[in-house]
Design a protein that fits this description.
four-stranded antiparallel sheet; 16 helices; Isoleucyl-tRNA Synthetase, Domain 1; alpha/beta; Rossmann fold; four-stranded parallel sheet; 3 domains
C-alpha cells in the first residue's frame, strides 16, 4: 500500500500510518447528539471523515467505521449545573424522549444522504449500550479511579493523573492542558460540590424525580455521562486499542481527554493510535454561536431561509467548499465564498462531463511538454491525499487540468496533444477522485433526484388516500400534479409511474 501520513493530534506531528492489523482499519468518529437539528458546524466532521473512510478503502483497507448516536444524557457541566439536553428538549417540544430522538435522527440521516456520505459500518446508540457503560464504570470503581456520591459516580482525575503520569499517560496528554493549573484555579469550589475536585467528571448521574430518561444501576436510578458512552461503544466494536478516532477540534477537551482516561484505566493502555481532528468553521469571520445568531441549521442552508444567507445552497456546494480547504485549517462560511464554490463546482463538473465524451486517439503525445505536465498533475492526486488527506491541493490540480480539457473541446488544444495513455489516466483519475473519493455529485442531478423523491412521496400519499376512500384528497393530489406537468399512469401490477410534460 502507498505510504499514508496523518497528523496525529496526540503526538502533534505527522506520522506514517500503520494499522494495528495489516489490511484492516478500525475508526471511531463521534456522532451527533440528537436533541435538535444538525447545523453547519456538524457538516465538517461528517464530510471530513466520510472522505477519510472513502480514501482508506481506496488504498485497499477493510475499514470498520463506527459512528455513534448520542440519544441519552449528554449533560455538559458548567460550574455546578448539569443539563440533559434530550430530556430538556423533549419537555419543550412536548414529545416522548425517544420520539424526539427518532425525529432528529431521521433529520440527521436525511442530511447525511443529502451530502452523499456513505453509511458507517456500525451506528450504535447510547441507549442501546447502557449495560456496557455500567460494566465499564464498575471496573473503574473497582480499580480505585472513581467514587460514588449521592447516587452519582465521578472519575477521580487527580488520582488518575498521579498514577498514570508515571507511565507517560497524564490527564491532558491530548489537549495539552496541565491538570495542576486546572486544580489550582478551582480548589475553592471543591467543598461546594459533590465532587472531590472540580476537574472530576461524571460517569453516571443520579436522576432527580423530574428527570424523564433513567435506568436502573448499582447506584440507583440515573443516566450515563457523555464521555463514558464513546469509551464503551468503541471498546465493544473496535477493541481495547484501535487505529483512528476522529472528531471536531472542540471535542479534544474535555470529551476525548476523558475517553482516554476512562479507557486507559479499563484496558491498561491508551485506546487510540491516531487522533484526527478537523478544525472549526466561522460564519462571516465570527465564531458560530447562539449569542451571534449565526447558527445555521442544515435545513436553513439548503433552503436559504436563514437571515445571513442571500440564497439557498445545495449540499454539494457545502461539500465542495469544505474540500477546498484542508480539514485542519479554519474555514469561513459567507455568501461570497459559497457563491464562489458554486461557480467552481459548476466549472469543474462541466469539464468532467466534457472529458467523458472526449475520444481517445491512438499514438504518442503531440505536445510532449503538456503531456508530461498533465501526468505530473494527475499523479500528485495520490501524493497530496497521502499527505494527511490534502483535498484542497488535489482540487487545485484539477482546476489546472480544466483548461486543457476545455481546450481539447474548443480545439485550442490539439486532439492528439495528449497521449492515449495520459487521456485514459485523466479520465480514470478524475472519475475516481471526483465521484468515488470526494463523493461529489452533479448539483442538477441531485436536485432532480430530490424532485423525484417528492413526487413519489405524493404518489404514495395519494395511494393511501384511495385505500381509505378519501377521494377528495386523492383527486386533489392528482389534479395538482397534472397542473404542474406531472402525468400519472396506473401500471398493470397496481403501482403508479409518472412522466413530466
Amino acid at each position: 500500500m502507498p505510504q499514508l501520513k496523518v497528523y496525529n493530534s496526540l503526538t502533534r506531528k505527522k506520522e506514517v500510518f500503520e494499522s494495528i492489523t495489516p489490511g484492516h482499519v478500525g475508526m471511531y468518529v463521534c456522532g451527533p447528539t440528537v436533541s435538535g437539528e444538525s447545523h453547519l458546524g456538524h457538516a465538517r466532521p461528517y464530510i471530513t471523515f466520510d472522505v477519510v473512510f472513502r480514501y482508506l478503502r481506496y488504498l485497499g483497507y477493510k475499514v470498520r467505521y463506527v459512528r455513534n448516536i448520542t440519544d441519552a444524557g449528554h449533560f455538559e457541566e458548567e460550574g455546578r449545573e448539569a443539563e440533559d439536553k434530550i430530556s430538556k428538549k423533549a419537555i419543550l417540544e412536548k414529545l416522548e424522549p425517544m420520539e424526539l430522538v427518532q425525529k432528529y435522527t431521521n433529520l440527521y440521516h436525511w442530511a447525511m444522504r443529502s451530502f452523499n456520505n456513505l453509511e458507517p459500518s456500525i451506528e450504535p446508540t447510547a441507549t442501546g449500550h447502557i449495560v456496557e457503560q455500567i460494566v465499564m464504570i464498575q471496573k473503574i470503581i473497582a480499580d480505585g479511579y472513581a467514587y460514588e456520591t449521592n447516587g452519582s459516580v465521578y472519575f477521580n482525575v487527580e488520582k488518575y493523573n498521579t498514577d498514570f503520569s508515571k507511565k507517560g499517560l497524564p490527564y491532558g496528554m491530548l489537549s495539552g492542558r496541565v491538570l495542576e493549573d486546572q486544580l489550582d484555579t478551582t480548589r475553592e469550589l471543591d467543598n461546594q460540590d459533590e465532587k472531590r475536585n472540580h476537574a472530576d467528571f461524571a460517569l453516571w448521574k443520579n436522576a432527580p424525580p423530574e428527570h424523564i430518561m433513567r435506568w436502573q444501576s448499582p447506584w440507583g436510578e440515573g443516566f450515563p455521562g457523555w464521555h463514558i458512552e464513546c469509551s464503551a461503544m468503541s471498546n465493544k466494536y473496535l477493541g481495547d486499542q484501535f487505529d483512528i478516532h476522529g472528531g471536531g477540534m472542540d471535542l479534544q477537551f474535555p470529551h476525548h481527554e476523558c475517553e482516554i482516561a476512562q479507557s486507559t484505566v479499563c484496558n491498561g493502555k491508551t485506546p487510540v493510535r491516531y487522533w484526527l481532528h478537523n478544525n472549526m468553521i466561522t460564519i462571516n469571520g465570527k465564531k458560530m454561536g447562539k449569542s451571534y445568531n449565526n447558527v445555521i441549521k442544515l435545513t436553513e442552508m439548503f433552503a436559504g431561509t436563514h437571515p445571513l444567507l442571500e440564497q439557498a445552497y445545495s449540499p454539494m456546494i457545502i461539500r465542495f467548499l469544505l474540500l477546498q480547504t484542508h480539514y485542519r485549517s479554519t474555514l469561513d462560511f459567507g455568501n461570497e465564498g459559497l457563491k464562489a464554490a458554486e461557480k467552481g463546482l459548476k466549472r469543474l463538473w462541466e469539464a468532467y462531463e466534457i472529458l467523458k465524451h472526449i475520444q481517445v486517439a491512438t499514438g504518442d503525445a503531440q505536445d510532449k511538454e503538456l503531456d508530461a505536465k498533465c501526468v505530473k498533475l494527475i499523479n500528485e492526486f495520490d501524493d497530496f491525499m497521502n499527505d494527511d488527506f490534502n483535498t484542497a491541493k488535489v482540487l487545485a490540480n484539477m482546476f489546472e487540468l480544466v483548461p486543457v480539457i476545455n481546450g481539447i473541446k474548443d480545439k485550442h488544444v490539439a486532439a492528439g496533444a495528449l497521449s492515449a495513455s495520459t487521456l485514459l489516466l485523466l479520465k480514470e483519475k478524475m472519475k475516481l477522485f471526483i465521484e468515488d473519493i470526494f463523493g461529489l455529485q452533479n448539483v442538477q442531478q441531485q436536485s432532480n433526484g430530490k424532485i423525484d423523491g417528492v413526487i413519489h412521496l405524493l404518489i404514495d400519499i395519494r395511494q393511501l388516500a384511495k385505500q381509505r376512500k378519501d377521494y377528495v384528497t386523492s383527486d386533489k393530489i392528482r389534479n395538482e400534479l397534472i397542473a404542474l406537468g406531472v402525468q400519472l399512469k396506473d401500471e398493470k401490477d397496481g403501482s403508479m409511474s409518472y412522466t413530466l410534460s
